[in-house]
């Protein structure tokens, strides 16, 4: 009887919220309704490194009106479960950025250039998240020596997980810095922020 009731409740929850909105790994991220205050309001000076070792400014990759910048915790003895979940969800729902003329980039902080190869574990974990075509649709950049993490004031066992929306001028239009490694905005929260910016 208990099993039947649980099955009915689970089916009801699925039908109410839609299968695609339920986290398939059991992780619940944060519903965020407003931006936090930030330490710097111009991201145009931040520098990252691509997987080929080239220096990259956000201007170099900006092709849309808005850039969603997701900063992961980085390499701390491994890729954390929450970073893998967050980045896989974005890979699955990447196309939902299109109506807002937005793109996405993920930042992977490392303490040294020797750790830059660890990005391959993040790539592997994202692809294990059942993403379309097993293809990651956004760039993953390195923050070697945590230089941008320090500029943003988000260092804590590498980086506090952070999400920003940046416009073409490099101005921050939304910021959320997590208080713990699990404290990250949901994809829906970020899409709602983009909808407000477009309105």
Write the layout of secondary structure elements.
Blueprint lengths: L1 H16 L29 E3 L5 E3 H4 L4 E6 L9 H13 L8 E9 L8 H9 L12 E5 L2 H6 L9 E6 L4 E6 L9 H12 L1
Helix pairs in contact: 3-4
Give your account of this protein's structure.
Mean pLDDT is 86; it is low at 1-23. This protein has helices at 2-17, 58-61, 81-93, 119-127, 147-152, 187-198, and strands spanning 47-49, 55-57, 66-71, 102-110, 140-144, 162-167, 172-177. The protein has one domain (24-198): Glutaredoxin, CATH 3.40.30.10. The protein is built from six helices and seven strands. It starts with a helix and ends with a helix. Helix 3 (81-93) crosses helix 4.
Would you summarize the structure shown here?
30% of the residues lie in helices and 19% in strands. The protein has six helices and seven strands.
Order of helices and strands: HEEHEHEHEHEEH
Model regions low in confidence, pLDDT < 50 over at least 5 residues: 1-23
Spatially, the strands of the biggest sheet line up as 5-4-3-6-7
Structural class based on helices, strands and sheet pairing: alpha/beta
Mean pLDDT: 86
CATH superfamily: Glutaredoxin
At CATH level 2, the architecture is 3-Layer(aba) Sandwich
Radius of gyration: 17 Å
Any idea of the CATH topology? Glutaredoxin
Number of domains: 1
Features:
disordered N terminus, globular, alpha/beta, two-stranded antiparallel ribbon, 199 residues
